[in-house]
Amino acid sequence: MSRRVGSSNDPPSPSASYYDVSDDEEGGYNTIAHANTGRGVKLLYSKSKVYVHPSPSAKDNIPGFIALVQQKSAPLAADERPGTASSSHSKSQNDASKYLLAWVPESSLAQDDFSTYVKVDMKDTESPPKQTYLVPPLPVSSSYDDSNVGPYAFSLPLSHIYSILVRPPNLGWWFGSIIINTKSGSSLPALFFHDSECESTILQKKRKTKESFDPFGEGGDLFWGGDEVLKWLKRYVTVERSTAEPSVYLINPSEEDLLGFGQGRKSLEGQGPNSDKQQSKKQPPGPGMDPLTKALKETRWKILENLSKITTFTRRTAQDLANNNNLPPQVRRLLQNPEVQTIQDEFDSARLYLARWAMGIAEQSERERRQRIYTARDVLETESSSVGEFEILDGTESMSLNDSKRRPVTMKEWKGYFDSKGRLQITENEIKERVFHGGLDMEDGVRKEAWPFLLGLYEWNSSAEERKAMMNSLRDQYIRLKGQWWERMIEGQATQEQEEWWREQKNRIEKDVHRTDRHIPLFAGEDIPHPDPSSPFYNEHSPGTNVHMEQLKDMLLTYLEYDTPPDGRTSTSITINPNPQNLGYVQGMSDLLSPLYAVFQDDALAFWCFVHFMKRMSRNFVRSQAGMRAQLNSLDQIVQLLDPKLYLHLQKLDSTNFFFFFRMLLVWYKREFDWSDVLRLWESLWTDYLSSQFHLFIAVAILEKHRDVIMEHLRGFDEVLKYINELSGTIELQSTLIRAESLFHKFEKMVEAIDRKDHFPAAPIEIRQRQGKGKDPEDNSQTAKQPQGSSSSNDASHQRTNSEADKEKVISPELRLLLSKEIVTLEENADAGARTRASGLKD
Amino acid sequence: MASRKKVLLKVIILGDSGVGKTSLMNQYVNKKFSTSYKATIGADFLTKEVTVDDRIVTLQLWDTAGQERFQSLGVAFYRGADCCVLVYDVNSPKSFETLDSWRDEFLIQASPRDPDNFPFVVLGNKVDMGEERRMISQKRAHAYCQQRGQMPYFETSAKDNVNVEQAFEVIARNALLQEESEEYGGDFSDVIDINLNPERDGCAC
User: Fold this and answer.
1) Rounded to the nearest 5°, which phi and psi values hold at A624?
2) What is the pLDDT of residue A40?
3) Distance between alpha carbon A775 and the CA centroid of its chain, in Å?
4) Scanning A3, A207, A802, B160, which has its CA 20 to 30 A from the CA of A282?
């Protein structure tokens, strides 16, 4: 479709051509004075809560609307609505001149106009509204200081836009922003999208998540307000993303521009910045841009950007950063730039943000020089740590990501390990080794087969027939257990106290089930009416639940039945569990159960696997919290041994309670990794291949990865807690597993070395020298047993006592336990539980 | 430029699980509501900068797990609190009845210098569920708060953003008063000069 536009190819003077629906007085309404006479420009799109940040102080921020308006350029165009049609004709320069991108501060808008902007903002349609919304025109400006509507307002014909710098938001730490560069070479002030305040963005985000939901991907969380603006623009002009500078989007670029910005030839039609991450990964850097230059360019942008994003930050922090040896020298120099250093103020979040950002930089350079850095650091650690005299093997060299043993076990491979009777043909250890390193295929259903073995429900030496018989009996038992609480609730055979307790437990379970893994499609929707009108989730007008949430609820109640001793139930109840713990329902249990159920989709099987899982997890849930304390204490001891420097720093920060690992330990990293990674991690942990306490080494691996940042930037318990909490969703599983394994081996070697030293007490050189200096005559009076084969009686006896002191310090029973593959359980006095239940808080 | 010492006010939010502690905090700080917040495990906090009587203060709002069992380990951060917010669900009598236990638990663990005058604020949340669901009347809640040293009381809805801003304004104010009274007990090295920041604060029109 073709149509006539302005007669000249030059962009018409915008001030002379405002679109006016009344169409009669073409000339007279290009100033704001005429705004209230009923004329105006046509508002096509708008988005609220887009801010200008004129100063580093948040209180100076000015909220406004970014909008796309249409002005009249030729009579013919007056009643044409740019909708689907506009994508079929060429997006020429002439079109571009009649559409204006504008920003207007909220404060400049009259009440009526304000609501028009809001109305258009909330029109959640792909194409502009059918109805015509008129708003007062804004003075066209590329210089924005002489305007009547506030110093930052502007409206600019699209034809005058050269490029737009786009920075999406990141992890909730800063706002997404765009900066418009005009063809005359000036830049308009950065516009910050406060998405969390913007109704329409919140709605669009919600809808996107719903529509394109991908349980195994990153979800729709990258969507932000700036996406929408690019989408508007793409309807009217050509938007090309530069490959050399991925944050730059060129508007109606010329051939030369395209060349100048690398191979940005691929049109971005229908492609938002969402997909850009992958795209920029795949595409080679533009000509003449080596990876380092590119990285530096990006880094430079990051720094400049963070100056505008973060309201304030301390000079000290900037210097900390500048002195960080992990930074490339160029970056350090940039940070020492006085301009960068001028802004100074106390602001906690800024420091955390910078800490994270520094980590990103360190990671980037680590990736390039991984092995050298890692070894160097290890050597340094070995030399300077208090246990430096021990030879420590660096396990990572022998481990690689591409190792064939790290391929997932498929159903075919799994089946191959069993004979025709369904008996395991290889050793238990061999198959566990495979699963520990490779995990299980996530799609072919092998998990359904393997998990009951890994969890200890199936004996490794059982036959298929034996397992089948066992499951038949377990299914019956599950039904009976489930029937018991069900009947009790309906028939009310229980005492009032019991009844009260069960009702309370049920409410608690239901509350949690309704907020457990609802992002997984299985648990997402609500499509059946709630069976219980007394439930808070019951609603007579809409379905309040779905069958899988109801199953979770039933399984957790059945577990309660299973775990509660007879006096908490009724005398007629069967007792299947010889050793009930009487935990009651505790938060976190639903997190542990839901993956089992999601994989099996068989309530009885999931229930019994959960029972076995709880054998090792129940110590996390006892009333005294003794199990959690013990694990946090173990962490304390491992870190003391493996990274004494970091430990001392944590001590300074009042953080050696390691409370910031509470969540990770309680539900085995369920809240830190995404769904598919959780399944992969858990099946590794279930093998107990190296240790039944391997999950603690995962924690140390995470801590070690961030140790430099923690040591250099964090200054208090609250900052450590926040930093570690915010790692959620950012931790890479595979490398964490490798690091954890390496740390385990390092730990194992140290324990061995200390044990060996104890039995063969020839002193390592370093210690002997130290001893030599401190030698005094009284040493001779010591009556320690004379060890054989040592260099001198004096030194040896000294060494003997010394190593015993060491041994007491480092190889505590807690630490030795970490080498065990036996599951650690902790049984609490069931009576104590029953007593607590009757009094105090609702626990 | 002399460094301007910011006042950090620590606020602990307590109450039974599922009464809406996380939701209230997120509504106040991020202006967001979601029905799908997961049960809080461990502890976390959000910060927000607010102006109280011309002073800029940073609120550090601590969100905790609601299950009593988890309190014993996570009390490290109770210490140094400037205000404690007790939240219950107006539709759940149980969550109202446990307010005393939460209050006592806090006073024991935080051991403030002057427990009788330590500021608490009570929030009755989920008023959006409708009167027919409601189990604790406003009158009863008021009487309760009166009896216990006139704790300020607000009926809130994190979902519909009812009274949230108002409640936290009072929380911030009381926390600042508490912080100041504590400071009198100690040294007065941290005098805040409110004139240090004489930027224009009008709008940009």
Assistant:
1) -70, -15
2) 76
3) 55
4) A207
Cα–Cα distance for residue pair A258/A244, rounded to 1 Å: 10
Checking DSSP bridges between strand A41-52 and strand A191-193, what pairing results, if any? antiparallel
Residue scoring higher pLDDT (A491 or B70): B70
Would you tell me how many other CB atoms lie within 10 Å of the CB of residue A281?
A: 7
Q: What is the ipTM of this complex?
A: 0.87
Which residue of B lies nearest to A666 if distances are taken between CA atoms? Answer: B41
Stretch among A437-441, A754-758, A811-815 having the lowest mean pLDDT:
A754-758
Pairing of strands A99-105, B153-155: unpaired
> Residue A659 and residue B74: Cβ atoms within 8 Å?
yes
For residue B86, what are its two tokens? 């007790």
Is residue A269 within 8 A of residue A234, CB to CB? The reply is: yes
Contacts of B69 in chain A (CB under 8 A): 586, 621, 623, 625, 843
Residue A164 backbone phi and psi in degrees, to 5? -130, 130
Angle B89-B94-B99 (CA atoms, 0-180°, nearest 5)?
A: 75
Contact B31 A197 (CB under 8 A): yes
Per-residue pLDDT reduced to its tens digit, A397-418: 445 555 677 899 999 999 999 9
Mean pLDDT value across chain A: 73
Place of tokens 């080596």: A290
Rg of the Cα trace of chain A? 33
Q: Would you list the DSSP string of A766-807?
A: HHHHHHHHT--GGGGG------TT-S-HHHHHHHHHHHHHHH
Q: In 3D, which of B102, B91, B165, B168 has the Cα closest to residue B124? A: B91
Pair B176, B57: CB distance under 8 Å: yes
Cβ distance of B47 and A663 shorter than 8 Å: no
Instruction: Report the percent of chain A where pLDDT is more than 90.
Output: 33
Q: What is the CA radius of gyration of chain B?
A: 18
User: Between the ranges A109-113, A369-373, A791-795, where is the mean pLDDT highest?
Assistant: A109-113
B19, B29, B70, B75: best mutation site toward chain A, by most A Cβ within 10 Å? B70
Beta-carbon separation of A108 and B67 below 8 A:
no
DSSP A648: H
- Give the torsion sign (CA, A365, A371, A373, A377): positive
For chain A, what percentages of helix, strand and coil (3-state, to nearest 5) are there? 55, 10, 40
Nearest CA in chain A to B98: A841
Supply A712's token pair.
């250099």
SS3 state at B4: coil
pLDDT, one tens digit per residue, over B157-168 is: 999 999 999 999
Q: Quick one: which of B170, B4, B172, B151 has its CA closest to B82?
A: B172
Contacts of A751 (CB under 8 A, 6+ apart): A810, A811, A815, A816, A819
- Decide the pairing of beta strands B43-52 and B55-64: antiparallel
Q: Are A38 and A46 in contact (CB under 8 A)?
A: no
- Asked if A417 and A795 touch (Cβ cutoff 8 Å), the reply is no
Does A477 or A779 have the greater pLDDT score? A477
Distance (Å, rounded) from C-alpha A164 to C-alpha A623? 57
Name beta bridge partners: A333.
none
Chain A residues in contact with B129 (beta carbon < 8 A): 536
How, if at all, do strands B7-14 and B55-64 pair? Answer: parallel
For residues A445 and A415, what is the distance between their CA atoms, to the nearest angstrom?
12
- The lowest-confidence range among A345-354, A682-691, B191-200 is B191-200
The DSSP bridge pattern shows strands B55-64 and B83-89 to be unpaired
Enumerate the residues of chain B whose CB falls inside 8 A of the CB of residue A536: 91, 129, 133
Shortest CB distance from A108 goes to which of B39, B133, B205? B205
Measured from the Cβ of residue A203, the count of other Cβ atoms closer than 10 Å reads 12
